[in-house]
C-alpha cells in the first residue's frame, strides 16, 4: 500500500474510533465535567450498584436468548418446509419474510405497537389483562430475527446432497429421523451463523424495543436512551467501556478460532465438514 | 408426514406478526378516532411534506458522502492480504457492535458548545463554533453510524475483482483512470446498489440522530412518527398515515434502484 492509502485508512479509522475513545477516557474521569481532572473507577462501581441497569442488562440478555432460540427453531423448520414447497407459495412466504428486513425499523416498531395495542383492547373486552412487557418484546424480537435464520439456512439446504438423505431413508429412516441423522449436521453452520446474527441484532436493537417495551422491564438500549436525555451521566461512559471490552474480546476470540481452523485446514487435519464420519 | 408442514408454524407467524401489523397501519391510516373511514390523516400527513423533503435531502447527502468516503476504504480493504485484511475488517466491525445510542451520545459530547472539539479549538484561539443542533451535525451522525453498511457490501463485491483483470487492463494500455472507470466501477455496481440502499433507508427514517444531534428545530420524518406514537402528540392514526407514506417512498426507491430484483437478494441482505 502506498503512503497516501495508508494515511486515508488511518484518518478514516480515527474518525471511526474518536467518539468511542472519548467515551472510554471519560469513564475514568472523576468529575462530571468535560475536562479530565483525575483518574477514578467510581463510575463502574456505581454502575454495578445501579439496580435499574442490572435489571435492564438481565432483560436484554433474556430477551435476546429466548427470542433467538425460538427464532432459530422456527426459522430452521421454516427453511426446510420452504425448500420443499412449490415456487409460487414459497415466493409469497419469502416476500413476507423480507418485509421486516427492508422496511425502515421505525415502521416495524410502530406496526408492532399497533398490533399489541389492538390486542390489548380486544383482550380487555374478554377480561384478559394484557400488558406491554417481556412478552411483547420477545414476540417482536422473534419476528425480526427469523428472517436472518431463514436466509442463513436456505443456501445450506440448497447445497445439501439429497442422495445422503435418500440413503438414510433407504436404510429405514423416516423423514424425521433422516433430518436428525443427516440434514441437521449438514446445515449446522448456517443454523449457528443465523443464531449468532439473531443474538447480535437482538442485543443491539433499540427502535423496535422502544416501541414494544413495557413500563416495568426495559432493555439496555431503551435505558441508555433515557440516560442520554439527562445529558451528563458518567455511568453511560462506564457502560460504554464495558461493552467495548466485551465486543473486542468476542471479536478477537472469533478471529483466533477462525485462524486456528484455517491452519488446521492447511495441515489437512480438519476432517470433512460433517465433523468426520464414524466408521 | 411431509416436510412441507415444517414451515406451517412460521407461515402462521408471518400472517399474525408481519401481515396483520402492516394491515393495521393501513387501517389506522384510513380511519379516525371513532373508527369510521376518513381521508383526514393523509391530508394532514401532506402538511408534513416539507419535513419529508428535508429527510430525503439529508439522507441523500449522507448516502452520497458515505459512498464517496467509503468507496476508497472498501477498495483498499479488498486489495489487502492476510492478517492485515482481517484486522481491518475487525476494526471496521467493532464500532458497529457498540451500541448505536452510545456512539451518537459520544458525538453529542464532542460537538457541544462547551464540548471537547470546541475546547480544543478554544486553545488555539478559534471558536466556539456552533456545531451541535445543525443540519451538518445530523448528516455527520448519519455518515458516522451508517458508513459501515456502505463499506461491507462494497468490499465483498470488490473482493471478487481479480488482480489479474486489473493487470490485464494495464497491459493493454489503460491508465489508472481507465482501469477505474472501465473495470472497477462497473464490476462494483451491485455493491454500490446495496450499499446505497442500506445507508439511505435507515438515514431517511432515523429519529435518534436528528433528536440527539439536530436539536429541536431539525426534526425529520422519523421524529414526527415517533411523536404520534410515543410523544406528546398521541395520534396513531396520523402516525400510521405518515408511516404509510414513508414506507411507500422507501419501496419506490428500492424498486427504482432494482434493489428488489430476486437475484442475489439473500446475499444482499446478509
UniProtKB/TrEMBL annotation, chain B:
Coiled coil: none
InterPro entries given in the database record: MetI-like (IPR000515), MetI-like_sf (IPR035906)
Domain called ABC transmembrane type-1: residue spans: 52-257
Membrane topology of this protein: Multi-pass membrane protein
Alphabetical UniProt keywords: Cell membrane, Membrane, Transmembrane, Transmembrane helix, Transport
Signal peptide: none
GO cellular component assignments: plasma membrane
Pfam families according to UniProt: BPD_transp_1
GO biological process entries: transmembrane transport
Chief location category: membrane
Bilayer-spanning residue ranges: 7-30, 56-76, 88-108, 120-147, 196-217, 237-260
Cellular compartments annotated: Cell membrane
Homology family: Belongs to the binding-protein-dependent transport system permease family. CysTW subfamily.
Entry-linked PANTHER family: INNER MEMBRANE ABC TRANSPORTER PERMEASE PROTEIN YDCU-RELATED (PTHR42929:SF1), INNER MEMBRANE ABC TRANSPORTER PERMEASE PROTEIN YDCU-RELATED-RELATED (PTHR42929)
Protein name per Swiss-Prot or TrEMBL: ABC transporter permease
